[in-house]
Amino acid sequence: MAGHAKTRDDAAPSELRLEGLDVAPGVLETIVMLAAQDVEGVACVESTGLAGLMHKAGRAKPVEVAPGEGDAFAVTVHLAVEYGRPLRGVAAEVQRSVADALLSQTGRGVSAIDVYVDGVAFPG
Question: Is the separation of the CB atoms in 80 and 38 below 8 Å?
Fold first, then answer.
């Protein structure tokens, strides 16, 4: 739709329909968060920096799952990577892990998985 600006309500349905089953977006976000956190090199799944400030203001979340093309999901993940890990490699593995988790647990694939590395975690 040209000229139509999406509002937050347009982008985040209260439930997603999966073959006769209504699923809350929070359930899907939890699946994505756990799959991303399971990847070696991911320090945490959260919004830091500017994205984190927006999250605190209620405008961004570390994980978002929305209907994508066809029956697929569109996913956005914000995370921090451990210092010394290859950013591109960790992000690619997060994409694979999230796609596999959503497919195995919901029966639906993904049309897009956007991974944002918002920070680097240094050893404490």
Answer: no
**Can you give the pTM of this predicted structure?**
0.79
CB burial class (10 A; 0-12, 13-18, 19+) of residue 44? middle
- Structural domain harbouring 76: 22-121
**Residue 13 located in a structural domain:** no
Q: What is the pLDDT of residues 71-86, one digit of tens each?
A: 899 999 999 999 999 9
Chain length of the chain: 124
Q: Which residues contact 71 (CB under 8 A, 6 or more apart)?
A: 108, 109
The count of structural domains within the chain is 1
CA-CA distance, 4 to 70, in Å (whole number)? 20
The Cα 9–Cα 69 span in angstroms is 19
